[in-house]
Amino acid sequence: MKVVIIGNGGHSKVVQEMVIRQGYGVHAIVDDKYESEQIIDGIMYAPLTSIHKVLDQEMKVVVAIGSNVVRKHVVRKLKLPDERYLTVIDPTAVVSNSAAIGYGTVVMPKVVINADAHVHDHCIINTGAVIEHDNSVWDYSHISPHSTLTGNVTIDEGVHIGAGVTIIPGINIGEWSIIGAGATVIRSVPGHSKAVGTPARIINRSLGVVKDNM
Fold it and tell me: Which residues are substrate-binding (predicted)?
C-alpha cells in the first residue's frame, strides 16, 4: 500500500521511517514548503494544494505534523473520510489486544498501551510513553517521550503532555491544556491551562481556544 505523508519536518522524518518499517511505500510527501510538484528518488514532493492530485482511492494519508493545532487544522481542511487515514504503529510498540487506536494516530517506538486504553484520532504517542489500563486519550493530543499515564487517566482533545511527565490514577487533563516536561500531576487540570512542576501547579488558565470550525 502507498502512503501520502503530510508535513516534512522533524516529526515527519520519524513517521516516514515507521511507515516503511510497517512495510508500506511512501508515494508522496506534501508540505507547503514546496512551491511545485517534483519527484525525487521516486517520491512526489508537492504543496498541500496538490493533495487531491497525488492521492488516489487506494492510498492512505498520515498527517505527520507535531503541532496539535496545525494537525487539527489540516484534517479539517482536507475533509477526507476517517477511513483514508492510516494508523501508524511501530513494530517495537506493545499494544494490548483490548486497546483501541483511532484513525491517523501515530504510536512511536517502544510505546506501551495497556488493557482497555483508548487512544482516539490523530494523536501522537511518542517514543517510550506508557498509556496504562483504562486511559482515554482524545483527538489531536500529543503524549511526549517517556511520559507515563497511570490507570484511568483521561486526556481531553488537543492536550500536550511534555516529556517525562507522570500522571497519577484517575486524573483528567482538560482540553487544549499543556503539562510541562517532567511534571508530576496529582490533581486534575482544567481546560486551556498550563501546569508545571512536581507536584504540578497551574501557571496559566487562559490558553487560546481552538475552534471546531477552524
Answer: 66
So which residues are the catalytic ones? Answer: 133
In this prediction, residue 210 has a pLDDT band, given cuts at 50, 70 and 90, of low
| pLDDT-above-70 percentage for the chain | 97
CATH superfamily label, 87-202:
Hexapeptide repeat proteins (2.160.10.10)
* CATH code of domain 2-84: 3.40.50.20
User: What is the C-alpha separation between 49 and 65, in angstroms, rounded?
Assistant: 16
208 annotated to a ligand binding site: no
**Structure confidence at residue 211 (pLDDT):** 58
pLDDT tens per residue, range 117-132: 999 999 999 999 999 9
